[in-house]
């Protein structure tokens, strides 16, 4: 049974990927091939470096989503139970138009684009993911951010009946995260609603999740139900669990090791026998785009 299901799934994904590659080449020669669409206006990185995305299977079968268990294959196995329709995101706090924004209304208002990003987990593995989504700044713009706001606090859905992992106190639930407002407004920060041109699977954070490619993966909070604009630095789940190991910023930095392991290199998921360790890049390779956000900060202290 399991085998048959798996094979079916695999065949379908191969087709999807073939279509995806074909669409990319149809999009127009070099620009699409180099992933220029993946980076928008800040093209310096993409212009020099083509990113080859991981397979759909890598991206959707090897996950961290502790609400569904701490095993890498738990999310793919259990997250299907999460009800994602209907869905709304409450945007509140320091905004002109607070309220519950229906997912469908958000999608109608946003322009979905493709972003091929490196994704680097704090556990020192990485992937390249072809996300579909929109800039977080555009969603915040819908609600009208007030000038006193300095941070955005994010919250994941908490549905104990559908989330077998939340009966364990691995983290405080609901999962919460936060960004400084300028980080949130940066054009590289997106809300992802798809992968390889399909709706984002539950295990990857359906129906919409944050993706901040220059930060460790845990900042990219899944299945977001609330965003609160505030003038106080928000609490974050991993910082609450272990403040010495996980800071608020959590920018990818090969020069600052995790207390229990090196962050100088990473294991690229996929490729089977050819899976390799590669050096980790400062800000996960997005240094040119984002380093100005941290001017004057000591990145060895403000972890
Ligand atoms: N709500 C929630 N969001 C989460 C997590 C989680 O456990 N719960 N795990 C984080 C971690 S540690 C990583 S590495 C990424 C993994 O995203 P992926 O499974 O799409 O690769 O999601 C992040 N977002
Ligand atoms: Mo992670």
List keywords for this structure.
single chain, 303 residues, alpha+beta, Sulfite Oxidase, Chain A, domain 2, seven-stranded mixed beta sheet, five-stranded mixed beta sheet, 10 helices, 12 strands, 25% helix, disordered N terminus, binds the ligand Nc1nc2c(c(=O)[nH]1)N[C@H]1C(S)=C(S)[C@@H](COP(=O)(O)O)O[C@H]1N2, binds molybdenum atom, molybdopterin cofactor binding, signal, oxidoreductase activity, acting on a sulfur group of donors, quinone or similar compound as acceptor
Radius of gyration: 19 Å
From the N-terminal CA to the C-terminal CA, the straight-line distance is 46 Å
Proportion of residues in extended strands: 15-25%
- Fraction of residues in helices? 10-25%
Main sheet record: 7 strands, mixed
Principal-axis shape equals globular
- Count of helical segments? 10
CATH architecture: Alpha-Beta Complex
**How many domains, in number, for the residues?**
1
The CATH class designation is Alpha Beta
DSSP strand tally: 12
Structural class: alpha+beta
The CATH H-level superfamily is: Oxidoreductase, molybdopterin-binding domain
Task: Say what the CATH topology is.
Answer: Sulfite Oxidase, Chain A, domain 2
Note the run of SSEs as H and E.
HHHHHEEHEEHEEHEEEEHEEH
Task: Flag low-confidence runs.
Answer: 1-48
Mean pLDDT: 87
In short:
The protein has 303 residues and is α+β, with helices and mostly antiparallel strands.
